[in-house]
Amino acid sequence: MKMIKYCVICGEPFSSGRRNKMTCSPKCSEAHRKTLEKMNREAKRSKRKSGSRTTIAEINEIARNNHMTYGQYVGWLYSKRFIRKSEMEGKH
Ligand SMILES: [Zn+2]
């Protein structure tokens, strides 16, 4: 079953049978991949800097820098296993 999704790069709607597809075209896919690589580096750097935890403020800042919402960025961190669910629950 196809669903309508919105490209995370250009915001255009597109239909996809694949749930994890986030971009509308190969061009946007490439731009998205570069963004993820950049976020990857930032996530690793902030993790080192703050010890074992990435703070909410840091996540917010990185998300904002990459034009993502906090929720989108946290979802991405989960998918990359940078954070565990337990790290994001409870105390800040
Ligand atoms: Zn696009």
Q: What distance lies between the first and last C-alpha atoms, to the nearest angstrom?
A: 40 Å
Shape: elongated
Number of domains: 1
Task: Indicate the percent of residues in helices.
Answer: 40-55%
Which structural class do the helices and strands define? mainly alpha
* pLDDT < 50 stretches: none
What is the β-strand count? 2
What is the count of helical runs?
4
Mean pLDDT: 78
Largest sheet: 2 strands, antiparallel
Keywords:
about 90 residues; mainly alpha; two-stranded antiparallel sheet; 4 helices; 2 strands; about 55% helix; about 10% strand; elongated; binds zinc ion
Written description of the protein model:
- The structure is a single chain.
- Strands 1-2 form a two-stranded antiparallel ribbon.
- It has helices spanning 26-49, 56-65, 70-80, 85-88, and strands at residues 3-6, 13-16.
- It has 4 helices and 2 strands, in the order E-E-H-H-H-H.
- The model has no long low-confidence stretch (mean pLDDT 78).
- The longest helix is centred in the middle third of the chain and has 24 residues, at 26-49.
- The chain is mainly α and 92 residues long.
- A hairpin with a 6-residue loop joins strand 1 (3-6) and strand 2.
- The chain is elongated, with a radius of gyration of 14 Å.
- It has one domain (3-86).
- It binds zinc ion.
- The site of zinc ion has 8 residues, from loops.
